[in-house]
Amino acid sequence: MPKNGRPEKIAQYAAGYGEVSKALEGMSHDALIAHPIAGKWSACEIVHHLADSESISAIRLRRLIAEEFPVLNGYDQDVYAVILRYNLRDIQPALDQFRAVRATSAQILAAMSEEDWKRPGWHTEAGLYTAETWLDIYSAHAHNHAAQIRRLREALKK
């Protein structure tokens, strides 16, 4: 049995897009860009964050597997949200990107060897980093944001 509940985490990772899509169902444009919770992103901003985060994380995973001790750079997600104008852009291309990148990464996860899981790298913010670390973070990432979208929906009803 693989350690740390890896098969369950891979399944959770693979299901992330569906959770986000379900959370977004039926939201109007005005609801998508609303900020009903002070200091929190809109649903639109969350979707663009997921597309960018997924792309960055996909490269991190590939580098961990293919390179010797890669250095993985952190980034300021709040700066991305502003500079890349998350709340002004259509979410459909970002959703498509999120879905496609996650699907290809899920294929890689399913094919990884035990050696692949243990290959170390260095994250500039988190320190020592392996594919296990990566999976611990990204298996829950989309689900956490789907829950955030559901909280925004509830706040909009009040």
Overview of this structure, please?
There is one protein chain. Helix 1 runs antiparallel to helix 5, helix 1 packs parallel to helix 7 and helix 3 runs antiparallel to helix 7. The protein has 158 residues and is mostly helical. It has a three-stranded mixed beta sheet. It has one domain: Up-down Bundle (Four Helix Bundle (Hemerythrin (Met), subunit A)), CATH 1.20.120. The protein starts with 5 loop residues before the first helix and ends with a helix. The chain contains seven helices and three strands. 68% of the residues lie in helices and 5% in strands.
Per CATH, the class reads Mainly Alpha
What's the multimeric state?
Answer: single chain
- CATH third-level topology: Four Helix Bundle (Hemerythrin (Met), subunit A)
- N-end to C-end Cα span: 47 Å
Topology:
Blueprint lengths: L5 H19 L4 H5 L9 H24 L4 E2 L4 H7 L8 H20 L2 H5 L2 E3 L3 E3 L1 H27 L1
Parallel strand pairs: 1-2
Antiparallel strand pairs: 2-3
Helix pairs in contact: 1-5, 1-7, 3-5, 3-7
Task: Give short descriptive properties of this protein.
mainly alpha; three-stranded mixed sheet; 158 residues; Four Helix Bundle (Hemerythrin (Met), subunit A); globular
Brief account:
With 158 residues, the protein is mostly helical.
